[in-house]
Amino acid sequence: MPFSARTLVRAMAFVAGTLALSASHAAEPKPDAAIRTKAIDATVVLDKKIKADAQLAADCLAEGKKWMNTSAADAAASLKEDPQSFKDKDRGRWEYQRDYAVHSIVGGRYVSIVRSDAADTHGAPHTNYTLDTILWDKAENKRISIRPFFAETADGGPTMKAIREALIASLKVEMEKSGENDTSFAEEHWFKDIEPRLLKIGAVTLAPSTEAGKSSGLTFHYPPYTVVLTGCVAFVPWKTLQPFLTPEGIRIFGGERPKSDEDDQQ
Q: How does pLDDT run across 116-153, given as a tens digit for each residue?
């Protein structure tokens, strides 16, 4: 597999350090919901910006509690089937953590949230990590997609093809930044999973902008071992999207991506 030593070291550090649950519990904020049984220790944490909006907080918390309950049922079934595995002094309960964090608020209306999950279920030598994104419309008090910003978003249509092309180009740049200059493996095995379809192209947020109230484009979030070994955030500037925008899209996009956002997402 054509990965450089630097990339592999970065991947191992990312998984072993950033995603470790047990070692970091002391520094974590107080959870907004939690379940602790003989089989599982699960928490949900909302950031302050989410908790400042009662309806958004309620939506995220309801989803988080449902996720915890499902995870607790799975853990209870596993405990019943293999109780010995839960008696290991170094492992014990399954550990789950879900965090909801605001990435951007555009025009005082559109809130982009990154939802990250970390889980240790005794199955792998490291914590499993997944993520997704939520786009919340404060005016309508509901979750939406990026569809309202584009004139068409048909599967395999011109908009989605243009976004995918720009996205792949961004991913290659991110790989080079991480020290992995040979993208042939990713192109053969991982990039093919990025389809020009809204539901298959990746978890997306509106990127912040140097222009107040605007978004500088779309950011796509990928965890480790998906399209890039170490996980990354890819950026598609709004000017690439300009030919496909609706009036609402034209209204909310503008400016440049702040350097601080680029640094924070690395």
A: 999 998 776 567 889 999 999 999 999 999 999 999 99
Domain annotation covers residue 220: yes
Q: CATH number of the domain that 76 lies in? A: 3.30.565
Does residue 127 share a domain with residue 9?
yes
User: Distance between CA atoms of 113 and 104, rounded to whole angstroms?
Assistant: 7
CA-CA distance, 68 to 43, in Å (whole number)?
Answer: 7
* pLDDT tens figures, 11-49: 433 444 434 444 444 456 799 999 999 999 999 999 999
DSSP string, 173-232: HHHHHTT----HHHHHHTGGG--SSTTTS-EEEEEP-SSTT-B-EEEEEE-TTSSSTT-E
Per the structure, the complete domain to which residue 31 belongs is given by 5-102+115-143
Are 121 and 165 part of one and the same domain?
A: no
> From CA 93, how far away is CA 125, in angstroms rounded?
15
Strand order in the sheet with 203-207: 203-207, 217-222, 232-237
Q: What are phi and psi of 215, to 5 degrees?
A: -115, 140
Q: Is 246 buried (19+), middle (13-18) or exposed (0-12) by CB count in 10 A?
A: middle
Q: What is the pLDDT of residues 169-205, one digit of tens each?
A: 998 888 777 666 566 666 666 788 899 999 999 999 9
- Same domain assignment for residues 156 and 221: yes
The pTM score is 0.85
